[in-house]
Amino acid sequence: xxxxxxxxxxxxxxxxxxxxxxxxxxxxxxxxxxxxxxxxxxxxxxxxxxxxxxxxxxxxxxxxxxxxxxxxxxxxxxxxxxxxxxxxxxxxxxxxxxxxxxxxxxxxxxxxxxxxxxxxxxxxxxxxxxxxxxxxxxxxxxxxxxxxxxxxxxxxxxxxxxxxxxxxxxxxxxxx
Length: 176
What we know:
The protein contains two helices and 13 strands. The protein has 176 residues and is mainly beta.
């Protein structure tokens, strides 16, 4: 992460202003910076130099491509906006037989009070999904203006978790 942060520091303000996220994986320890390449119906897609793409809706990861164990599609209910608690989330994956397999998870969200993190005021919302013996725990840090700043979200068993930090938003954006 330190090398990636150092690289970001060498980018021009114009390069950073176009939008930039820093992403790290829990399995394999890869780190990359991604740039926005499109916005379609509220879903913003980001692309890494090695052609891995991540798609987010309001800060919630809804699809990945190029990771190996990709998330083909997912519901994009933000845990802090869920109308009920618990609530259900669906996610689709490509299985070993090249067929799409969909799972439904029961999730519960908890939100902590606004506090200072790395010199910024942020609210943390944790989303716990699945069984108590093997839960998925997604975390979202939102700034006081609603911007989704940092997330840690599960992709799939083969890919593990992605941690994403919004370095700079594309013009008009409030989330990755």
